[in-house]
Amino acid sequence: MAYSPVVRQKAVQMRLQQRSSIEEIHRTLGVSQGALSLWLREHPLTEEEQKSRQRTKNSLRRKPRVSVPSKLHEMASDRELSRAEKGRIAEAAVLLRLLLAGFLVYRPALDGGTVDWLAEDTTTRRILRIQVRWAPISMETGQPLISLVKMNGRRTYRRYLPGEFDFMIGYCLISDTAYVFSEEELSRIKKVVTAQPSAAERWDKLRA
After folding, report:
1. Structural domains of the chain, ranges and CATH numbers in brackets
2. How does pLDDT run along the chain (208 residues), one tens digit per residue?
3. Which neighbouring-strand residues pair with 171?
4. What are the residue ranges of helices labelled H in 63-173?
């Protein structure tokens, strides 16, 4: 599969700036691990970095849940949240962050409900379509998961199509953290993205 130079540049940046592993870059960008091995051959992780990631992976396997749940999560720990409640909580959490970041935020009126918020940059007047998703914790990895699949009718589902949103933001109540992904970052991922720490509260992406 051929990848664009932009994707390759992002992969190299993740290695150089964030010291991301091939697996982490694969999960974020959707690029095959074989291609990443070739691209990053000249930028290897140190032996200590590799050992550190293996220790982290082993730790996550042993402790699949967030060790210190957020105060917000504790408020609802005594009951089972409905799907509708989870959606409203996630939307409210993202709305708060967008307002604090200085965006003007609107409910979409004429787009058929395909996104949850419209965020306007007060400096550039650029309007961004924001899709919000509830991000549960994976029992296998201990990291939040963001589904890229939506309902398509009463009992059918499909992946979000290119151009349906500008940014997808997954909100994890357990850690009270929002994970920010651009549509381009998710374009090669099929159904589910693991929310890596590198995407946590990355509101600067909206102004990139």
Report:
1. 5-62 (no CATH), 71-207 (3.40.1350.10)
2. 678 888 889 899 999 988 888 888 888 888 888 889 999 999 998 888 888 877 766 655 544 455 578 999 999 888 899 999 999 999 999 999 999 999 999 998 765 567 999 999 999 999 999 999 999 998 878 889 999 998 877 778 899 998 999 999 999 999 999 999 999 999 999 899 999 999 999 999 999 8
3. 134, 178
4. 71-75, 83-100
